[in-house]
């Protein structure tokens, strides 16, 4: 726990990891598991952890340049207003954009629909040394698709196993997969949608269709439960993030990223040249 702010009583990757039998209905979305601090003071902790993340991310990128093929994929899955965009802006955004590959997955285009559902996912996987960020993901193909019956059960049912196999292959090829299931309460979502409607600088985030999805909340809860039950694996476990407190969501996912990067045991790559000789040559130039 040496490299963890003192407000954390438990390591986030332990306390937030989904465990078999966990029920979505039991999640207290307004809680801040493992963290004793509150909103006051969180900005200061966040700033320090942003820097820690940025340092590790740059090291990953430098290693990629030096031939290390490893990468990291952050999967952000959650209902509207859960805070996916806020993680991209305030957590991942602290990193160097050179090494970040961000992709948001919306309703598939005609071209995408003509392919297997993992086609557009594979195309967006992070290159060596990069952090890929999925704002929604292949999980939509067992969430929105299941809830709206966009394809029959016989088609979406086998996808859980297929996704597990796909992610295992990914991990075996050197990509760490950090999957965050972000949960906001129905009430908090209402407040956040109301705010979007109150602020001209937030209209762009509002989509009238979001209200239809609210009506399907129980069906989504069931679909999310199935995702957690069936796709939280040893190679790519799910982390369950309570998201009513934005400051907590950021701190928690920031720590998950730091932890994942630390597990790669990165160091600055050695120079591919003779430093002293280069200094001499530079001085004479
Ligand atoms: P947003 O992330 O708020 O921009 O919304 C993107 C929308 O695209 C959401 O309503 C998703 O449910 C929808 N979406 C994402 N992936 C799929 C998919 N594979 N099939 C159908 N709809 C999808
Ligand atoms: Mg939206």
TrEMBL record:
SUPFAM superfamilies, from UniProt?
Answer: P-loop containing nucleoside triphosphate hydrolases
Gene Ontology molecular function: any one: kinase activity
**Do you know which Gene3D superfamilies this protein is assigned to?**
P-loop containing nucleotide triphosphate hydrolases
Q: What top-level branch of life does the organism fall under?
A: Bacteria
Residue ranges of every copy of the Polyphosphate kinase-2-related domain listed in the record: 43-265
Is this entry keyworded Transferase? yes
> Which keywords has UniProt assigned to this entry?
Kinase, Transferase
NCBIfam families (UniProt xref): PPK2_rel_1
Q: What is this protein called?
A: Polyphosphate kinase 2 family protein
Q: Which organism is it from?
A: Candidatus Mycolicibacterium alkanivorans
